[in-house]
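Collaboration report, partner site 2.

Our partner group contributed sequences for two proteins of shared interest, and the home lab folded both. The records are reproduced in the order in which they were received, starting with the first partner submission.
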Amino acid sequence: MEAHKPTVSYGDISLRALEPEDLDLLYQVENDVSLWSVGVTNKPYSRYALHEYIASASGDIYVDHQVRLMICNRDGDTVGMVDLMNFNPQHRRAEVGIVILDRYRNQGFGLAAMAHMFRYAHATLHLHQLYALVGENNPYSIRLFEGAGFEKEGVLRDWIFDGDHYHDVIFYQRLLPVE
């Protein structure tokens, strides 16, 4: 992987709550078969199911144990989404996942979104750590998480099955500042 100098910084993006207008984008991302092997999805979602998800999500991580935020550029265009999931308030940690739309990749949007998530996780949710599970065959996510200061803590052998082969997953962790 070549070193890449991002052109987008923290102040160039914002994070916002999921809106009904995001249905088409959510439908596109959730039904992108190429993304299924990096997550837990293994079936297509209907527009109806995603509409119900948007309508029923409280936006309260303490209720839903997850929160999805849309990543927007300065023009208000949605460039991706970032999730906190498997939220555990007792142990003050959550898993983080991110998707940047193809046309916005390798421009720094992922790093900028991670900076926002660190601030939100620490200052608002008072989390101590964020972690990510990244497929060994996903160089873009490896570069993103390592560039965002996550440390490789271990490897989960044969963790993901793509229908033909098993793949290892790298367990990344980032400890947030102590309060």
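Second partner submission, folded after the first:
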Amino acid sequence: MTDLPKLSPADVARIAGEQPEACARCAPLAFKGWESFPGSESDAGLEPVGTLWRAGEEEEPTLAEHHPQGTNYWSGDAPIALAYFPANRSQVWRCRHCGHGFLRYTEYGGYYEDRRIRSLQPALIVE
């Protein structure tokens, strides 16, 4: 999806600040922390909004994470640190029905790909 617009941190904060709470259709995907996209759910109800990084067009972003309060990758209260992994490699998506926002990225392991998703929570966004 290289045709998605590039979003600045200010764009992401604006989108997050304007979004409603997750509706019944997207609530099963509204995880507080990063989770694997549930195999039982479809992403047909979501639409891409933009990207934070363009693979092949920009320098590889850092793989360092940002957890100043002792959180970890899976923590629901971990900061959404846009300059750090994995937010820095994410795309912003929203629910087609209500407009609730999500961050999505794909984790590439040795023998697998794992689509990950997290609810876009404005109070946790940091640059």
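Feedback sent to the partner group on the second submission included the following. The CA atoms of residues 25 and 97 lie 8 Å apart. The radius of gyration is 14 Å.
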